[in-house]
Amino acid sequence: MDKVSTDCPYPGCFFCVMKEGNPSKRRASVLKFFRELPSQDDDGQVLPISGLWNTAMAHPNDPEFIELGIFECMAALIWKGLKNRRWLSHDQNIYIPYYAAHIIGSYTMNMEEFAERAVHAGVIPPLVELLRGRLTWVEQRVAVRALGHLATYPSTFSAIANHGEVLELSIELAMSSLEIVYSHFYQYVDRRLSYHCDLLTRGMGGVEMESRKAEEWASQLQCWSLQLINCFAFKTEFLSVISKPEFLIKLPGMWGGLVNENSPAGIGLLRTICHNKMGRGPIASCPSIIESLCNIARSSDDWQYMAIDCLLWLIQDTSTCHKVVDKAVPALLDLSEVSTLGDHKNLGNTIINVLQECIQSQAASRNSISPRTKEQIEELLNSKQRLKWEKGMPKEDLHIKQAAALVVKLEGNSLFSSGNITGAASKYSEALSLCPLRSKKERVVLFSNRAQCHLLLQQPLAAITDATRALSLHNPVNRHAKSLWRRAQAYDMIGLAKESLLDAILFINECSQSNDPDLSLRQNKVPDYAERLVKKQMRSAWLFREAAIKHGGIQCEGDGGGIYGRESDDSEWETASESDIGNDGRDAMGDDDDDSEWNNEEEGKDSYDRASIKGVRTAQRNSRAKKVASYSLTLPDGANLNGCVWLQFIYDE
Q: Considering only CA atoms, which of 226, 232, 473, 433 is closest in space to residue 341?
């Protein structure tokens, strides 16, 4: 049997106890340690607590400490910190409530049995006190995390719900968390609490890392609050509290930022609310929410499908359909040819079926839809019939239609090159009417080219529609680089920074993988026009932007300052025509290699590394060293940060 070292100066030291070779003696010693620790006032208590935190993070499913009373010990330590400020301020005890709440959250995130033990151990009341803000936002963060885990399980949810203030506190925290972190920490470097800085960086970083981690933790504080609220949203009896307009209208803007792309955040909660009939009414009564859902549905957001689900459920509900149909139908029409999106198979067919049911039920409803909306749906249904008709056509007739569409498209290219943008758009529309619906690859080109025309004609909404249709037809979905770029520009024109940013980042990611010489990144350098747009939108979509504006836009001093605390003057979009490029008479459309191959087969699937996109989305938000994937996004001092140039990739094929 191993002997416990006698070199340790602390009798009953936790680390010495864990070296005990006899399992039964070790368990007895650990049990004693957990029982006695809350009543002790010795220095150095934070060391074993931090060790327990590491163990909980590394082995959250290990039952040994659960059985020996770790939950009771952690709850008692939190109470001690709340009630005994003298003890809390002594030595390094200020860290202990944070670690204690984190340990509770780690041990309850996977195992319902552990969550039940935690509830019986009395962890909820001290966690609720931390949630109230009895200490600081740092402790609120780990408290809402732990409570969110406990609320996830059916057997422990009621214990959370019995504390009626938890839901209200979570809603308040979700709305105010970013401002709290900004004003209490980020804004003034010289006022930052040292223990906050240590927890954020583990003592390994300076001001810059502190600021970056503070943004990440602020996002987590908001997203974990939304996760806790989401647990309540599954219960009808709580929807009246959650579905207040002043809270609902803020949800689309709670997106987690680039630092927390793994959380559905506000759109996830909206989806849960929409899934319940009682929740659909308040959402349908907020036009700004419907507009936001349409924008998210027509974006490259990871949670795009959640917005589509919301729109479909609202249309299927006869009590809400008439309120949303005129706004929702145009967005859904743009997505009606999506094949697969995430786990959603045949999503386009689902959209078509829902819209068809909408038309059929409209006759029996007292609330009629507008003639324009009805006409748009009927056009979609007619195209479905057209597809069936084309399947029965002889191949010779299909080839004739393909050839006619190609001729008209080339006429459009010529008009575009001569500066007749309106005429080119008309020709692309004519080509689309001729092109067989099964020729998806060529239709992607036509929609994308017409989107570029709309951009130059200052018609951003039409450009978004055509770019979205091109991206929906493309295989894989949302992977057509030039359409991503055009939609990014269009979203910028109407001031939707987040949607523009996500499209621009994905465009850069696609360029890095493209074999197209017009698109491939030369020498691993992000094109200047993309760089400018990404920088502009990262500034506009910055997580702390609203808080910084409210509190005077005061920047952090030193390396952590960044560019986001101040406004910049971005000039208007350039609207130069193709003739300004000076392309030596070459076909400005940059035709794809497939122009001569008008076949009916879809493109072969490219390997799609989702992690590469996520890597791009974790781009650093520092003014001097932003990176998208592995490509430098630095600009020379004093570089112009105007909107992206129009002249790149004027048209596709």
A: 473
* Contact by Cβ (8 Å): 426, 408: no
Tell me if residue 627 falls in helix, strand or coil: strand
φ, ψ dihedrals at 341, nearest 5°: -135, 105
For residue 523, the model assigns a pLDDT of: 57
What are the tens digits of pLDDT across the range 387-431? 889 988 998 999 999 999 999 999 999 999 999 999 999 999 999
**What percentage of the chain exceeds 90 in pLDDT?**
70
What is d(CA 428, CA 470) in angstroms, rounded to the nearest whole number?
Answer: 13
Q: What is the pTM of this model?
A: 0.84
Question: Which parts of 52-145 are beta strand (E)?
Answer: none
Rounded to an integer, the average pLDDT of 238-254 is 96
- Asked if pLDDT for residue 227 goes beyond 90, the answer is yes
Q: DSSP class of residue 631?
A: E
Q: Could you tell me which of 469, 544, 580 has the C-alpha nearest to residue 222? A: 544
Which tokens go with 514? 């493209």
DSSP state of 474: S
How far CA 619 is from CA of 259, 530, 623, 642, in Å, comes to 8, 14, 11, 20
The tokens of 651 are what? Answer: 């048209």
Give the helix/strand (H/E) hosting 396: helix 395-417
Average pLDDT, integer, range 277-305: 96
Torsion sign over Cα 330, 334, 337, 338: negative
Whether 250 contacts 270, CB under 8 Å: no
Instruction: Note the pLDDT tens digit of each residue in 495-530.
Output: 999 999 999 999 999 988 877 666 666 556 678 899
Residues in the chain: 653
CB 247 within 8 A of CB 284: no
Choose among 431, 501, 493, 482: nearest CA to 457. 493
Task: Evaluate if residue 313 carries a pLDDT over 90.
Answer: yes
Query: Kindly report the CA angle at 440 between 407 and 492, in degrees rounded to 5?
Result: 95
Q: Give the Cα-Cα-Cα angle 443, 370, 270 (nearest 5 degrees).
A: 75
| pLDDT tens digits, 336-392 | 999 999 888 999 999 999 999 998 887 666 667 899 999 999 999 999 899 889 988
Side chain identity at 652, as an amino acid letter?
Answer: D
CB 166 within 8 A of CB 228: yes
CA–CA distance, 394 with 613 (Å, rounded to integer): 42
The DSSP letter of residue 182 is I
Tokens of 281: 């009414």
How far is 195 from 198, CA to CA, in rounded Å?
Answer: 5
Q: What is the mean pLDDT of the chain?
A: 83
β-strand partners of 631: 628
Q: From CA 511, how far away is CA 505, in angstroms rounded?
A: 10
Q: Do the Cβ atoms of 269 and 279 come closer than 8 Å?
A: no
What 459-467 contacts at long range (C-beta under 8 Å, 24+ apart), as own/partner pairs, is 460/489, 460/490, 460/491, 460/493, 460/494, 461/490, 461/494, 463/487, 463/489, 463/490, 464/298, 464/490, 464/491, 465/298, 465/330, 465/334
